[in-house]
Amino acid sequence: MSASLKVLTQLFLYLLISLPARPSFADAQPRIQLPRTGLAPGDLAVIINDADPLSRQIGDYYQKVRHIPAANVIHVDFPSGRDMLSKDEFQQLKAEVDRATPPHVQAYAVAWTVPYRVNCMSLTSALALGFDESYCSSECGPTKPSPYFNSSSLSPARDYQLRPAMMLAGINFDQVKALIDRGVAADQSFPKGHAYLVITPDKARSVRASYFERTTKELAGVFPIEIVEAEAITDRHDVLFYFTGLAQVPDLHTLEFLPGALADHLTSSGGQLTGSNQMSSLRWLEAGATASYGTVVEPCNHMQKFPFPGIAMFHYALGASAIEAYWKSVAWPGEGVFIGEPLAQPFAPKLRELRPGQFELQIFSPRERRLGVERSLSAAGPFRPLPRQISLRRGANLVRFKLTETEGYLRLRW
């Protein structure tokens, strides 16, 4: 056993660990908590259009399987079947949603596929940021930036007065149910998949390639990353990330996406979920991805209007949910729609009891860092730091330990 592992084992001899949002065993929860890494079900509100039977079916299923509190379910009622809402229609909808949103809610899951657009903005961005034409292009120009971009915030409503939104999108209930089930299956799964950064012959749509080498260096040892120069990848069975630029991406049917996978293609109208002459972002979800993104109006090829792959991957590795990782990766999100299962959290820390008194902690990190340990004799505090810290390496960390001491209350902090 290495010296560092011995130190960790000694430290954990008197730690009783659990996750507040996903406790592995009930008695551990009051004793010690790991740092929160992403949104929990209680942080999310589900918006259901009562005039749309499919929306009701999706929303009811999502609330059930994700254990969303009943108080977090928001019902609206407007004619369905249209791709776009007018500004006035949206303002009325937004007012209803705002009135019904509990103050503690940090993000939205939207239980429908259409409408996905509000004039020049996407529906998800208009819900998050409010309808504001400064978030739209003028003659292919820049737009107002998102304050949430690459943020460390775990509470965007509190910190930035915005609630990111993601659409539980699909053509029918079976598709959306499969999407939701993949998101649930992704939680704490620590998938050993690859990231594929594809440079296609379409140079205008491959502008993100200028950052691919940097992404590979910054995330070395965290994810296996392949930079591929080709029209597309084929026959891969370990796809966790797939970022490319093309109007139509071929061979998706030959790929196997792991639960929690993020995938998108930089093109003008991928976010036009229905009726586009380019490939809809829905095709990614149908192929097995858990979340995707596309623009609903002509964005021109500003990289800021699309996800930065390295930033999305970095926040995912920190344990963020899919909605957080994707939203934080887009600097100018006003014209882009976010679709997928919001709460998928494949790299949230996980604790298992292997046998009575013996435990295994899995924790992932995009960089070398330390966890501080604080202790208190009372659950209410005050907590005081202990001299020892837990050292984490890049990527997966696995610690096994025996438990012999349960006195006091402890918490771990980044």
From TrEMBL:
InterPro entries: CHP03790
Record keywords: Signal
Signal sequence interval, chain numbering: 1-26
UniProt-recorded name of the protein: TIGR03790 family protein
Native organism taxonomy: Bacteria, Pseudomonadati, Pseudomonadota, Betaproteobacteria, Nitrosomonadales
